[in-house]
Design a protein that fits this description.
This protein has helices at 19-30, 60-73, 77-96. The protein is mostly helical. Helix 2 (60-73) crosses helix 3 (77-96). It is elongated, with a radius of gyration of 29 Å.
């Protein structure tokens, strides 16, 4: 025998939200005064490196330069690229204020 199920609550039985509730919800979605303010968190320079990964293709000349530069600096190839990127970014940021 089939047991028929009946819904416990229908859509008509739900209460309509008040205009104040609608405004509070909209303000929270839009990041208005009703929502807690979120400060932009400064990235940690010593954090674990699992945020993003990229694949960088090199030609033979560029790869040989990378190998030679890493060997001369005593760094791994990956650390050499990271270090070069950080130094270049710092130089560019310092030079931005001089213009």
């Amino acid at each position: 025998m089939v047991k028929r199920r009946t819904p416990k609550a229908t859509a008509a039985a739900q209460a309509e939200p008040t205009p104040e509730q609608i405004e509070a919800f909209a303000a929270g979605v839009d990041g208005g005064a009703g929502s807690p303010s979120k400060k932009a968190k400064q990235p940690d320079a010593t954090a674990i490196r699992d945020y993003k990964a990229i694949r960088v293709p090199f030609n033979e000349y560029e790869y040989q330069q990378l190998v030679q530069g890493a060997a001369l600096s005593g760094r791994s190839k990956l650390n050499f690229m990271r270090h070069a990127m950080l130094v270049m970014a710092k130089e560019l940021q310092a030079g931005k204020g001089k213009k």
